[in-house]
Design brief:
β34 and β35 form a beta hairpin. Among the domains are: about 90 residues, Immunoglobulin-like, CATH 2.60.40; about 90 residues, Immunoglobulin-like (Sandwich), CATH 2.60.40. The protein is mainly beta. Helix content is about 5%, strand content about 40%. It has a 5-stranded antiparallel beta sheet with strand order 11-35-34-33-32, with no helix packed on it. The protein has a 5-stranded mixed beta sheet with strand order 27-31-30-29-28, with no helix packed on it. The protein is globular.
Length: about 625
């Protein structure tokens, strides 16, 4: 590795140490002088399943982590068999409300008309079964369970992560995409796997403009959705929604505490938003993961700061802790079908971080959710250095991989530290992005495949992928397993994205500017065609005798060339020339002065995909900068 590249990477690491403090273990705020309520449970055997019934409920019975704005979810029985729901708060009293069924037909949520009181105990009673009578003889069974409401710790005054301007050398600008400054993707190893598709990633938090980004493997920008100030995009991917491929990402505010408050977004191939998942039960969707399962069921992460007496773990009596949740959401109705909380199932003593005297404590840091075909869920927690397999329905931890209480004997090379993005492959292998840093534990970050032997309870390292120029990512990152077994690795805090063959050879390598960060990076074949027409801008050259034309179509993947039309009237434009779509923005010069110009986007066979609106030179020339830029 050259000294220049080494210096760049070292500077990048220094630049993202602050990001690591945010997205890694969390920032700390001031202390409280008053005592907080107890929130660390005495036992960790909570189950969401009602005994004797195939019904899972949330908030889970006996939980201490229910939000004041919780709905009461009944999952596993048709809505018509849920009746006579009674919800009573010890302080807030009887709660009226309505029962709303899930679009999948397998349950319903009772939505109280008013929130619960912080810290109170809530009693739930209902009849489950075919009969609508109060009698068991008609097929109904009377059920009852209680839960406690948490005491929220307000994050209203917590600022977003700083977003300074990017250096001019870090971004590209285009005449046809006003005010946008898209980060440059530099390709350092040409693609040897073109079938893997385009590059999907995001920038931030940190310097530069935020928004979802798609590039070709050659580093050419395909799509940039520049977001408003204080809005960040993370986790751009391709998933299936309503039977079709769609873009999915998170959008919102990244708090300096290390998590997000926003919504998950689904866009179709026309870049039209077709679904928004803001989270439920009073919690905003967090940035760390968003997975769409069959039947359009979403699994999202949510972070919840609550007041908590931390003296049992060496913290402050007036402390606060960040509880993390997995929410299973019906995407059509927005109802929460099921909810899981880390504090109910994992002991705070398993954390590799120390309970601070200042608060809140990011003891767990949930950063991935992987729903399995059998209904179980595999999650990764950065702050405990462990992955957890959760049982379908009950939410109980079936086994741990790594951490202080691993269910497996960790073989050589299998132990991870501050890891991200845990996934279980169809053959049972577990994949993780092992940061190994913040503080440093390993000398470089890596992606790993780990095999599990359930007979001997041993974990074996099957593969490890490391960059030929050692990279140490202090935060973020992911590993994507492609259908052919190749691995795409994004190094997060060091915004490098690489593809490796199954045997470990490097097939592709690129990076965003090293003072930026990319939470995750993926490769997918993507075909997009915007609903909006192509954009054209035109003005005269310095002599006033020739016409300069710029054309682009933000997000279009099948435009191979541009047919340039020009004339004296918008209704009588004629073809003047055809130019290749050589980049995000293509430019040409017509050897004549025209009053109006338009462009037609053509596919590789020469068919017209769409036509721009005519551009009037007199209208546009007055507003264009004197120094022209092209990309």
């Amino acid at each position: 590795m050259s000294r220049t590249r080494l210096l760049i990477i070292l500077l990048a690491v220094a630049a993202v140490v602050a990001v690591a403090a945010v997205l890694g273990t969390g920032a700390l705020t001031g202390t409280r002088k008053t005592a907080s309520p107890a929130c660390l449970p005495a036992t960790l055997d909570h189950s969401a399943k009602l005994e004797g019934l195939g019904v899972d409920v949330s908030p889970a019975p006996e939980t201490d982590t229910a939000s004041p704005y919780s709905q009461i979810s009944f999952l596993g029985v048709p809505p018509a068999e849920i009746h006579e729901v009674s919800v009573v708060g010890r302080r807030s009293g009887d709660h009226s409300g309505r029962l709303h069924g899930y679009s999948q037909g397998d349950g319903a949520s009772f939505l109280p008309d008013a929130p619960f009181d912080a810290g109170e105990r809530v009693e739930v009673r209902a009849t489950i079964g075919a009969g609508r009578s109060r009698t068991i003889g008609n097929g109904g069974k009377r059920v009852a369970f209680d839960f406690h409401v948490d005491t929220p710790y307000s994050t209203a005054s917590v600022p977003a992560f700083p977003n300074p301007k990017a250096a001019p050398a870090d971004y590209q600008s285009f005449d046809t995409l006003p005010d946008a400054q898209a980060p440059i993707l530099s390709v350092t190893l040409a693609d040897r796997d073109p079938g893997a598709g385009d590059i999907l990633t995001t920038n931030g938090p940190g310097p530069g403009q935020y928004g979802p980004l798609i590039y070709t493997p050659r580093g050419r920008l395909v799509w940039f959705d520049h977001l408003p100030k204080d809005e960040t995009a993370e986790n751009l991917s391709v998933q299936r929604y309503e039977g079709r491929h769609a873009l999915t990402f998170w959008q919102g505010k990244v708090l300096s505490l290390g998590f997000g408050q926003g919504e998950d977004v689904v866009m179709n191939s026309n870049y039209r938003t077709v679904a928004r998942i803001p989270g439920g039960n009073g919690l905003r969707a967090d940035l760390h993961d968003f997975q769409i399962a069959p039947h359009d069921i979403a699994y999202i992460t949510a972070y919840n700061a609550i007041r908590c007496d931390l003296t049992p773990v060496g913290g402050a009596p007036g402390g606060a802790i960040i509880d993390t949740a997995v929410q299973e959401i019906d995407m059509r109705t927005g109802l929460v079908r099921w909810e899981w909380h880390s504090l109910d199932h994992v002991g705070a003593s398993e954390s590799e971080t120390t309970a601070p005297k200042a608060t809140p404590w990011d003891w767990f840091h949930l950063n991935s959710v992987d729903p399995e075909p059998d209904g179980n869920i595999f999650i990764s927690a950065r702050s405990t250095w462990a992955g957890y397999q959760l049982e379908a329905g009950t939410g109980r931890v079936l086994w741990r991989l790594g951490g202080t209480r691993s269910s497996f004997k960790m073989g050589p090379g299998t132990e991870t530290a501050w890891q991200h993005d845990g996934r279980i492959l169809s053959d049972g292998e577990v994949t993780l992005f092992d940061n190994g840093s913040n503080p440093p534990i390993h000398h470089q970050s890596r992606a790993v495949r780990i095999g599990l032997d359930f007979k001997t309870h041993e974990a074996h390292l099957n593969s490890a992928y490391t960059h030929p120029n050692p990279l140490l990512a202090v935060s973020q990152g992911n590993m994507q397993t492609l259908p052919d077994g190749n691995a795409v690795v994004d190094y997060g805090g060091v915004p490098e994205i690489s593809e490796y063959a199954r045997g470990g050879s490097l097939l592709f390598d690129a990076h965003l500017p090293f003072d930026m960060t990319s939470y995750r990076g993926f490769r997918f074949p993507w075909s997009g065609r915007p609903l909006s027409p192509p954009t054209v801008l035109a003005d005269l050259d310095d002599t006033g005798e020739e016409t300069i034309v710029h054309a682009s179509w933000n997000g279009a993947t099948d435009a191979a060339s541009w047919r340039v039309l020009a004339g004296e009237h918008p209704e009588s434009l004629k073809p003047q020339t055809t130019i290749p779509a050589s980049g995000f923005e293509s430019s040409t010069i017509l050897p004549k002065k025209y009053a109006y110009v338009a462009v037609q986007a053509l596919d590789s066979a020469g068919h017209v995909l769409d036509t721009s609106r005519p551009a009037h030179l007199a209208t546009y020339a007055a507003s264009l900068p004197t120094t022209r830029r092209s990309g």
